[in-house]
Design brief:
mainly alpha; 8 helices; about 10% strand; globular
């Protein structure tokens, strides 16, 4: 079955003032839809045309070389953005508790220390890409990927990711990526992140 654009579970303006409605509409309805459409086009007529996006991005070395780049970029863009919408929400912010909160404190020292590492990874990502909190070997780790590469292709499970492509923030923040990364924590849905953490460990 071809990939489908997942509907947003909240209104385009639900994350304001941190992320504006126009950015959300363009980002979801145009950018994410283009990744879905282009991934489906690249995979059409191949053995992977009915595979899950998870199977596709974890099998890139088996994808024919002539379509591998398109699949990597567009299937990656689809799965990355799907997670991005899921781990944000209008009642976001605050701090995680329970097992996730404990793991963050044990691994990084505090939530503030984690946020600093995610911000640093996002700022240092030259050009376009993502900053991630992943589970790797049962442990938490911060990493960054270029373009639409996903940690899943490296055997790591992303549970939180912030998009640092300019289309994610430029209308509100222009070239101030650090300001966007600071504001973004106010829309993080920690319950959704905790659910992903529990499934990954």
């Amino acid at each position: 079955m071809p990939f489908e654009l997942p509907p947003l579970q909240y209104a385009f303006n639900a994350l304001e003032p941190h992320i504006d409605a126009t950015t959300m509409e363009i980002h979801h309805d145009r950018h994410h839809k283009a990744y879905v459409d282009n991934a489906n086009a690249a995979l059409a007529g191949t053995p992977w045309q009915d595979s899950s996006v998870e199977d596709v991005v974890t099998s890139l070395d088996q994808i024919p070389e002539d379509i591998r780049g398109a699949v990597r970029n567009n299937a990656g863009g689809h799965i990355n953005h799907t997670l991005f919408w899921e781990i944000m929400g209008p009642d976001g912010g605050g701090a995680p508790d329970g097992a996730l909160g404990d793991a963050i404190d044990a691994t990084f020292g505090s939530l503030a220390d984690l946020q600093a590492k995610v911000k640093e990874a996002g700022i240092k990502r030259f050009g376009s890409g993502w900053s991630w909190l992943v589970v790797s070997g049962g442990a938490l780790e911060v990493m960054s990927t270029p373009n639409q590469d996903t940690p899943l292709s490296e055997g790591k499970t992303p549970i939180l990711g912030v998009d640092v492509w300019e289309h994610a923030y430029y209308l509100n923040y222009q070239n101030k990526r650090p300001a966007y990364l600071d504001a973004w924590w106010s829309v993080v849905n920690w319950d959704a992140v905790a659910t992903k953490y529990a499934a990954a460990v």
